[in-house]
Each structure stands twice: as structure tokens, then as C-alpha cells.
Specification:
single chain, 476 residues, alpha+beta, Immunoglobulin-like, Neutral Protease, domain 2, 2 domains, 8-stranded mixed beta sheet, 6-stranded mixed beta sheet, 21 strands, globular, binds zinc ion
Amino acid sequence: MKKAIFSLLCGMSFGIAAAVHAQGLHATMFVKVVDAEPQDSLGAFFYPYKLKVIQDFDIRPLSCDTLSLKLENFSFFQTLRAEGDPDFALIPDMNVCSRNGQAPYHDTDYTFDGANLSIPVPADAATHIRIEYGYYSDLCFRTHIVPMGCGLLQYDFGWNSWYFKGDDGHVEFDKVAFDIPDTVCFFINGESIAEADGTVSLDLAQHRYDDISFHIADKKWYDPHPVRIGDIRCDLLLSKRDTSEVENEIPVPLAQLPDSLIADRKERIGRIIRSLHGLFPESKAEEFTILEDDLRTEDEKYAYGRAVHMSDREHAVFIDRSYWLDPSLTHELVHCFLNYNYDRIDARYFFDESLIEYFANYVYYPDPNERDEAFAAKLEYFENLPGDKDISIFDISRNYVDTRSGDGTHGIVYHKVPARIHEFAQKIGTERFHEAVRKFNLRLEQGDAPDFEDFGRILRDSGVSEEDWLQFVRSI
Ligand SMILES: [Zn+2]
């Protein structure tokens, strides 16, 4: 029986994002990826690796007597797992110390309730406070989703905090460096610079996100297969975990994958990327890593996927294996080709998710009849969801699904609006619609911050009537 798997596409969140941009608190951060320690409560039973994080805060501008820091959001899955089980702390060991100028560090008192860290600033005129702690990745891949064995660890700030910020939600980093062992692949949401000492630092001048997020993948679980599609390079990292061995306590990577599976994956990725390159030849995306694993809930209701934009050129996409068999992988790849800058455009969920999902289905279903059926099924799915049907995409402040009740705005973002876009594109001419998207992208690229009204203007300039445009706007 085919199970209906709900894809947790990468734009969805489980918490309310806080974005306070106060100025002042400066810090540096050093992150070392080390082998997990079996004596920790989580330890090596769940994780092959943990982080050792050092955050150094320069407190000279502070005029208060206490440094208040916080971990601002917790993973939905972590919260579930931690309910009633205090041993499941993500932070197994913490130490706080301070110093004045170049004097040696000495231990400093602090209180930490699992979210808020309060450090009285020592009376001896300390200038720096250092926090050292161990940190395990979110639990979702390993306990709620898969018992163990998956080699992908996420430190994704949108999912849960892995470093401390000021209690106003802000910290300004002057340097962020990573020490990564050769046994893992490293994917971060920004350009990285290889340092002479073997560490990697984040190019903070180029970094365009509020938060620093990264993933590491344990190489022993993945079989690398480079694919070349024209000028585009793609590294497939195919899972070597035997899906029939999910219940096995100590899984062992497969020695080799079946040739037919490798050929199938290569063929699929070639087809998708050729189509996307044909649609968006101006895109700078030219290097991809696509990592597959079992990233779905035990009840098979939810599957995880995410695109990480390392630069305009380079992207990493992590997917559950089921993503190969529906438009979900294509969705993540469209994100890479249409790499919208979230902060600069209005109608955020229209551009950054609904339009992406429209193109994902357009590409995934090249046959026009199958495509029509797919979009019709989306509308039907939306109509059958509980809740208010009259909410516009422009009135949504949050893109989410409650994985327990099924409530949320996902029906509007991923089902209703993509289907309406398809109807509209067919009405005005699909090629005309796609050309308007390309023109809009070009203006974004040129930095003149076009908005949704500009998108409408581009369409009307191409011959779409005012009436058709307004009818479309009302329909979404
Ligand atoms: Zn998405």
C-alpha cells in the first residue's frame, strides 16, 4: 500500500522566529566537532559526534552587572522527546569563565535553566566572558524519526538554537571558526574560508542570514557519486544504510549499493537539473550536493528535506529517500535555482514557497495531463483540509504545520496557491508566466528590490490584462 508521506519542506517552521536586531553584544565562536563521549547521557548511543563550542563574549560595552544570554528556540522533536525526561539535555557539560584583558581565565558563577543563562559580571572589571559547552545535534533524526544509524547531524538554528545569543535575540560575531574531522562532510549556510591552521571560518562579510546553521554528514554512511550535467556538477551522497535493517541495534553500512539504484538516481537528478537549467538559464547555481537518508517519522507520516544555500553558486540538499518519488526533491532544487532573498521581498510565502512548489510540480510532471491532475489533486487536498478556506497568502505570518493535529497554513502555501498559479499560467500562457518570473529574478539579481506589485507590472507589461491579474491576486 502506498503511504501518503507528508513532506516537511524546507521553508516550514515549528516555532515562532524571533528577529530582534539590537546592537552591542560582540562575540567570537569556535566549534570543534569531536567523537561523542559514551559517558554523557546521550553520548555515543545516539550520536557519532558532538560539538565542543567556545563562545567568547566581549562585554566591554555592557553597562549592566549581569550578562543575560539565551537559547531562543527548541526543536519540536526535542521538546517531544524531552517531555518528562530531563536526562535528554542537549548540553551535557558547561563551564563559564572570565578574564580581564589578557589575564588568564578563571571560573565564574552562572545559572542556567536549559534556556536562559545568567552570568553575574565579576567585580574585578572582567572584559571577556567565555562559555564552553558540549552540544548534541537535534534528536529528531535519531529517536523520533529513526532509531539510530542515520549519518546526518543538523545544527540548524531555524530548528533549534545551538549557540547563545543575548536576551534581546542578538549577537554580533566577529569571527566564527570550525575544526572539522576528515571523517565528515561539512555544509554551512554561507561561504567558508579555509584557514592555514586547517580550520574553516565563516565569511561573515558575505553572510546573509540572521543565524548560523550547518549540517555534518558522517562519510561512512554515504556512497559518493559525482554527476555532471552540462556545466553543473552534482555530488550524490547515497545512503548506505539498509532500510530492511532499521530495527537492528547496531547497523552497519552496506558494502555497496545496487547498480540499478545508482543508475536510477543519476538519471532522475539529470532529468530534474536539465529541466531547471532550461527554465532558469541565468541562475548561478552550478554545484550541488544531494544527500539522501531515512529522514522520516516512524509512522511514515512526515519526511524531512532541506536546501542549504552555501553561496549563490553552491547548494546542499538533504532529503528523505521518499523525496525521489514525488516532487519534493525538485522543490528543494528549485529553491537553489530561484534563491530568493527572504528579507528583501514582500509576499514572502508566495515567492519563496508557493512559486517554488508550482515549478517543482511543473518540472516533475512533464506530461501536461499528469501535471493538470497533480495540480487538481492539490486543490482537492486543500478543500478537504479543516479550517478557514478564505485566508489569503498575503495574510499569513507563519508557514507551519502542527505535526500532531495537521493544522497549519501549509495547505494554502503548498497546495492552494501553487494550483492557482498553474491555472493562471495556463490562462495567460505558461511561457509568458515563466518569462515574467525570469524578468523578476533578473531585477532581484540587479539589486533593485522588486516587490509583488512589480511582479504584476511585469506581467501586465507583457500583455496580461488588469482584470486577469486582479482575479489571480484575489484567488490566492
Ligand atoms: Zn520550500
